[in-house]
């Protein structure tokens, strides 16, 4: 029909099979194995008869203004390894039937208008590596069943303003995790000590949420951590000395919390640090001498605290420093 985008102009319904159509890949037996449509304005509802494609391995329709709900019969395409329907206008919930897809490695649903809770059935997708749910309207708690996803490398559920409750302790069982992104949600309670079991974790982004309590000392065991983003929360207590064990840490953004006590000297052992932002807290004591050891340090932001004493002369050894903000303290 005239409404079909020109990119799909060779989709001829009278062909015996769709294997020569653009954006379609078939097996040698002429079964459809891949649909790959990116950044083409379809403005069509989510396809409803996918279960007839029983050999489909990859379904990629992203940035195409797909509308309507995700069809539950997607769970019948048992060969699927990749579902990417990101950056569309999809509504409704994440179908629990996706839990039937035991070969699924990538579930990429970000940047839609999806609602409801994250289905606990996803815990059965044991090969899942990437779970991208960010920038939707999802709500409810993070299911403890996520702890069964031992191959999970990336979970990003940020920007869902009504995801609430605690970060489940079971997340520590996802020992392949590289990225945990839960920013701009209503996640609350304490960071679970089980995060210390994530020995491959590179990025922990739980900022602009409702986290409270102290940073667990076990975080020192996340030896691959590069980015620690916990700003704009209600965290409190002293910083654990164990942060000094993080030899790969580059960015420590902890501003706007309720931390107090002295800044631990041990942070001077984090030799990869480029940015330290501890502004808008209640830190006291003096500026650690050890910060002179931070040869990669580019930004040291300590404004709006209760830091006293004088600026240590050894700080001049941090020769990469570009920004130094110490205003609104008790420095003499």
Automatic annotation (TrEMBL):
SUPFAM superfamilies: L domain-like
Residues of the Leucine-rich repeat-containing N-terminal plant-type domain: 5-27
Gene3D superfamilies listed in its UniProt record: Ribonuclease Inhibitor
Any one of the GO CC terms: membrane
Superkingdom of origin organism: Eukaryota
Record key words, sorted: Leucine-rich repeat, Membrane, Repeat, Signal, Transmembrane, Transmembrane helix
Subcellular location: Membrane
PANTHER family: SOMATIC EMBRYOGENESIS RECEPTOR KINASE 1
Name of the molecule in the record: Leucine-rich repeat-containing N-terminal plant-type domain-containing protein
């Amino acid at each position: 029909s005239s409404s079909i985008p020109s990119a799909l102009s060779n989709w001829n319904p009278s062909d015996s099979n769709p294997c020569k159509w653009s954006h379609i890949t078939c097996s040698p037996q002429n079964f459809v194995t891949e649909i790959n449509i990116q950044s083409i304005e379809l403005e069509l509802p989510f396809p409803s008869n996918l279960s007839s494609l029983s050999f489909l391995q990859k379904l990629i329709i992203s940035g195409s203004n797909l509308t309507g709900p995700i069809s539950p019969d997607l769970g019948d395409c048992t060969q699927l390894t990749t579902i990417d329907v990101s950056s569309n206008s999809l509504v409704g919930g994440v179908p629990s039937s996706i839990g039937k897809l035991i070969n699924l490695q990538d579930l990429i649903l970000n940047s839609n208008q999806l609602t409801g809770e994250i289905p606990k059935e996803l815990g059965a997708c044991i090969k899942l590596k990437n779970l991208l749910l960010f920038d939707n309207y999802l709500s409810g708690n993070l299911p403890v069943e996520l702890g069964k996803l031992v191959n999970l490398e990336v979970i990003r559920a940020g920007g869902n303003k009504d995801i609430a409750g605690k970060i489940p302790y079971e997340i520590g069982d996802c020992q392949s995790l590289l990225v945990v992104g839960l920013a701009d949600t209503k996640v609350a309670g304490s960071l679970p000590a089980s995060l210390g079991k994530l020995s491959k974790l590179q990025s922990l982004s739980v900022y602009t949420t409702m986290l409270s309590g102290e940073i667990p000392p076990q975080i020192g065991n996340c030896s691959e951590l590069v980015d620690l983003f916990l700003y704009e929360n209600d965290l409190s207590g002293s910083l654990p000395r164990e942060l000094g064990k993080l030899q790969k840490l580059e960015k420590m953004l902890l501003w706007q919390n309720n931390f107090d006590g002295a800044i631990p000297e041990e942070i001077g052992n984090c030799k990869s640090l480029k940015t330290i932002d501890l502004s808008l807290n209640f830190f006291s004591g003096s500026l650690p001498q050890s910060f002179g050891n931070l040869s990669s340090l580019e930004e040291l932001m300590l404004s709006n605290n209760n830091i006293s004493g004088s600026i240590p002369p050894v700080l001049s050894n941090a020769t990469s420093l570009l920004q130094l903000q110490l205003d609104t303290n008790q420095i003499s």
